[in-house]
């Protein structure tokens, strides 16, 4: 038993900025069975450049661009016609600290080349229900050869496609591509979800343990026990599997270090739904000043798992004396 009492930020640049996970559009060209209708459709608005700038400017009134990390997701962000123009504006005119986005990778290679003139990193979410392995892996290899660690792959661990998953991971390892494995969870599934996608056998569970990269905690945060010693936790998936993601009644810094922007501009402390909405980036925002008490049984989002938190405020100085 690890007996965790705190999570603090790592000794790297991650502690310097506020992280905004911005769902910029609900529209997507995929319709994955394990993706909720709350997270994607084929008809929703694709926001204009002017609207996106307005939302960003309202955030910058409180948090200077040089202290911001925007991570865009959807839906599919690249479906927005002026998405590259928005990224360029953030980096060139506003001097934002860091910006990245999650994509299904269906855009062509020249599109990503244009984007990477200003974007800091791309996470390609690998969806086996739609991906053409030969084409997508070739694109990933080319992007990795040109941009190195700025290209990441999130492999959706689909049990039905286990053999393909193994081949894809072997390819990524062979070419030294930064990757992570994401388990399918019924929590985010659509009404037509086939539970076979997450019917992991003992072999699959063992394979996951053997092949999951041991890098996530170095990027995001470290956990501390009662002796204020760091506890080795390889990743968010490890935290979930070993039930170390149960932080109910802890004091959490979501809304101070980490935020979620919903499709309509609603600003939340995080995707977990703890605490009331903070406002809307297209209207007004009531920025919090204190951590929030967690009311959820478990935490399932990697960045939120590694957001600063303490079991008791008696340990607050452990994560604030940085």
Could you please say which CATH topology applies here?
TIM Barrel
Number of self-contained structural domains: 1
Estimate the strand proportion: 15-25%
What's the arrangement of strands in the largest beta sheet? Answer: 7-6-5-4-3-2-11-12-13
What are the low-pLDDT stretches, counting only 5+ consecutive residues below 50? none
Record field, number of beta strands: 15
Biggest sheet overview: 9 strands, mixed
Radius of gyration: 19 Å
Indicate the CATH architecture. Answer: Alpha-Beta Barrel
Determine the mean pLDDT.
90
Structure commentary:
The chain is of the alpha/beta class and 322 residues long. It has one domain: Alpha-Beta Barrel (TIM Barrel). It is built from 10 helices and 15 strands. The chain has helices at residues 49-60, 83-93, 109-115, 133-147, 162-174, 202-211, 216-219, 236-241, 302-305, 316-320; strands at 4-9, 18-23, 68-73, 98-103, 121-126, 151-157, 178-183, 221-225, 230-231, 251-252, 258-261, 266-268, 279-280, 292-293, 309-310. The strands form 2 sheets. A 9-stranded mixed beta sheet has the order 7-6-5-4-3-2-11-12-13, with helices on one face. Strands 9-8-1-15-10-14 form a 6-stranded antiparallel beta sheet. Strand 5 (121-126), helix 4 and strand 6 form a beta-alpha-beta unit. The radius of gyration is 19 Å and the shape is globular. The chain starts with a strand and ends with a helix.
Write the layout of secondary structure elements.
Elements: E1 4-9, E2 18-23, H1 49-60, E3 68-73, H2 83-93, E4 98-103, H3 109-115, E5 121-126, H4 133-147, E6 151-157, H5 162-174, E7 178-183, H6 202-211, H7 216-219, E8 221-225, E9 230-231, H8 236-241, E10 251-252, E11 258-261, E12 266-268, E13 279-280, E14 292-293, H9 302-305, E15 309-310, H10 316-320
């Amino acid at each position: 038993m690890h007996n965790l009492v705190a999570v603090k930020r790592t000794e790297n640049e991650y502690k310097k900025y506020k992280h905004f996970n911005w769902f910029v559009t609900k529209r997507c060209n995929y319709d994955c069975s394990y993706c909720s209708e709350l997270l994607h459709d084929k008809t929703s608005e694709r926001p204009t450049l002017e609207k996106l700038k307005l939302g960003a400017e309202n955030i910058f009134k409180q948090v200077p661009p040089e202290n911001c990390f925007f991570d865009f997701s959807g839906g599919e962000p690249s479906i927005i016609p002026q998405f590259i123009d928005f990224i360029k504006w953030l980096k060139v005119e506003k001097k934002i600290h860091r910006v990245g986005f999650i994509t299904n990778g269906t855009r062509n290679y020249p599109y990503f080349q244009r984007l990477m003139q200003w974007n800091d990193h791309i996470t390609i979410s690998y969806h086996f229900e739609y991906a053409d392995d030969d084409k997508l892996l070739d694109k990933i290899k080319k992007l990795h050869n040109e941009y190195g660690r700025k290209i990441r792959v999130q492999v959706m661990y689909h049990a039905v496609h286990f053999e393909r998953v193994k081949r894809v991971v072997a390819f990524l390892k062979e070419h030294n591509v930064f990757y992570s494995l994401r388990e399918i969870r019924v929590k985010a599934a659509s009404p037509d979800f086939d539970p076979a996608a997450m019917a992991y056998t003992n072999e699959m569970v063992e394979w996951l343990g053997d092949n999951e990269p041991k890098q996530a905690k170095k990027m995001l945060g470290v956990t501390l026990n009662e002796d204020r010693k760091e506890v080795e936790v390889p990743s968010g998936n490890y935290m979930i599997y070993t039930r170390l993601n149960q932080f109910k009644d802890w004091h959490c810094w979501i809304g101070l270090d980490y935020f979620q922007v919903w499709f309509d501009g609603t600003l939340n402390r995080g995707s977990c739904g703890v605490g009331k909405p903070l406002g809307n980036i297209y209207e007004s925002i009531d920025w919090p000043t204190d951590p929030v008490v967690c009311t959820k049984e478990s935490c399932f989002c990697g960045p939120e798992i590694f957001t600063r938190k303490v079991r008791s405020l008696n340990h607050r100085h452990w994560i604030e004396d940085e």
